[in-house]
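Handout, section B. The chain below has 226 residues.
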Amino acid sequence: MIPLRDTQRSKTIPFVNYTFIGLCGLVFLYEMGLGQNLGRFIERFAIVPADVTDMYRSRVPILAVLSTLVTSMFLHGGWLHLVGNTLYLYIFGDNVEDKLGHAGYALFYLLSGIGAGVVQVYSGPDSQVPLIGASGAIAGVLGAYFFLYPRARILTLFPLFVFFPVFEISAFFFLGFWFLLQFLMGYLLAGGAEAAAGGVAWWAHLGGFVAGAAMLPLFLLLRKVG
């Protein structure tokens, strides 16, 4: 299922969401210009689970290892990876930012990404495979959207071989199915034994979604108090 747009209109300009999308795009363009140095760049700024779980013995400074939980969110492995992530962020992020406020949303997004990275690391703690992408943080946004706007309608494309039907379905069903799919793929393909299966960090998606849903009440309270 590919989301095309939602029916929930934002009351404010989501400039923080646009900033995150822009940063992902700019970093990817920088990656494309690195040529043979790209591998070294990815190794430096991506999450390497084995370095995180054994950071005290790693040759990389501890702060540098921990910083990858943030920097990895802005790296992507190709155009399809980038476009897929930013499409979801564009559709769902503006409404969550509208609800949490600009500063609250920025912090929420980053903490969701960190939570997703930690879950993915501990699903495959010995892996040397670098983990990159904004999908964990975006999963946190989806977790918040699921509880904030379950009745919103999502215009969804269903690729079926040569047919491409489009339907409007509820956010509750769309995001519920998305979460179930992440769980099934993570359990069946990764089984918790690898950092990622088939190039997809399924457990990061699950961790981000749960982190976002769990943090939502606190951020709503802070928004109300503030």
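Note. The domain at 2-225 is CATH 1.20.1540.10 (Rhomboid-like fold). Compare this with the example in section A.
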